Amino acid sequence: MIDVIIYVEDFPTLVGYLDTRAPHLLARDEGNNLIMPPVVTGFARTPAIVNGDKLLAYMRLTDEQAETWLGTPGVEVLAQAEYIGRETGDTVYQALFADAEATAKYDSVYDRTPREVDDGEGGTLTITPPAKFGVMA
Known about the structure:
The structure is a single chain. This protein has one domain (2-127). The radius of gyration is 17 Å and the shape is globular. Strands 1, 2, 3, 4 and 5 form a five-stranded antiparallel β-sheet that branches. Strands 6-7 form a two-stranded antiparallel ribbon. With 137 residues, the chain is of the alpha+beta class. It has helices at 11-21, 63-69, 88-97, 100-109, and strands spanning 2-8, 44-45, 49-51, 54-61, 75-82, 115-118, 124-127. β3 (49-51) and β4 (54-61) form a beta hairpin. Helix content is 28%, strand content 26%.
C-alpha cells in the first residue's frame, strides 16, 4: 500500500471522466444519479479539500488502486510514500514540502496563511492553520 497526496486541477472534468470510464467510483442515489456534490468512492482517504475546481486528497491505496488512480488523467501525485505505519504521513509531507512546485499546487488549494481574527475583547488573535490538512492513522 502507498499513501499519496493527489492534486486535481479540474475536479468537474475528472468527474466527467470517471462517469464515462469508471462510473462505479462515483456515489449515486437510488435512481442511479450522481450525488451532488460528486463523491468519489472506493478508497480510504481523508476528507478532500476543495478550492474552486481544484481538489486535494490524502489517500491510502492498494497496489491495484494505485495503478488505477496514478494513471487517471487529471490526477497528479504531489507526494507519495510506501505505507509503513504511523510515520508514513510525516514522510509524505516531507516529500511534498521538499518540492517547491508541489508545495505551490498544495498551497493553491489549502491556504496555510496565518489570519488575524477578533478575540471578542477588542483585540485580535493570529490563527495559523496546520501545515497538514490530513493524515491517515
